[in-house]
Amino acid sequence: MADLVQFAVAGGITFFGLLIGLPILFAIAQLFCLYTTVRERECQVFVLFGKVIGTLDEPGLHILPIVLGPRALLVRFFGRVDRVDLRIDQEYLRSSPVNSEEGAPMGIGVWYEMYVSDPVSYLFRNADPRGSLSANVSNAAVRTLSNMPLERMLIDRHTMSRTVRDDVSPKSQEWGYKLGSVYIRKVHFRDIGMIRQIEEKVVNRLRQVTSAIRQDGANQVSVITSTAERKAAVAFAEAAAMRPRIVGQALREIGRDAEVTNAMFAVLETESLIGSGGEIVLLPPGQELVGQLLAAGRSSGLATDPLPPPLPAPTRPRGPTAHLDAS
Prior knowledge:
Radius of gyration: 61 Å
Low-confidence stretches: 302-311, 313-327
Structural class: alpha+beta
CATH architecture of the domain at 89-190: 2-Layer Sandwich
Order of helices and strands: HEEEEHHEEEHHHHEHHH
Strand order of the largest sheet: 3-2-5
Shape: rod-shaped
């Protein structure tokens, strides 16, 4: 039983000793720069008495007295440790003012990537390397892209991006920065009045194109209509020419038989008389004098009295017959 109690006490003392003593031990070791931990895409710069004594950019755990020597124990008291982020960063500069060759005020948006390539130069060559790089990119865009033709400025963005990158890269490497991709993302007009004028020109041009399209369509419709009318007139003329020929052929066929010809002309004459709406007077045969008198009277304009209408036939009364006395 005593051994069990002794074991439990020893275990508790060890647990609390490790729980409290181990963090204290690590804190003392870190205070004297006995070790350090470097993260991924990070660099640590050790400065002692104003001089750089070493840099670490390999991720992992490092024992500083072995890497830097005994001087590492004095860094916390007479120097400092700077942590530099080596990850790729990006920035976008909006509407850098440039002028085209035609004098149009333009704005250019420049997007670029950068990362720290030399931590020592990044820390000691420039007090504000990020701001200096941004100003350098903006100045390079204005200097290299000004006085370019407007059409090229609006279209050829790849060449513009390469021009800006080639101009900025040497200076940025002196400050410990390395410039990555550079891309001209936006090219726009800065003058509101010019934008309105361009909009009006585009609208007027669209109206002209629309009117030209409509006029061309109307012309094509007129051509099609006139062609159709000409073809229809030719067809009607051919049809009108065919009718007399067909009638003539029919009459020629009929004229071969005299009886049929006389009968046909008699029928046509009768139809013509009936359709004329004139009065037909039937005279008994052998009364030529009466016909001549009637014709003479009509030619002189004398009106002839119409014949009285015939008397109606007596109707026989219906019902029982009445008997009258002879007396």
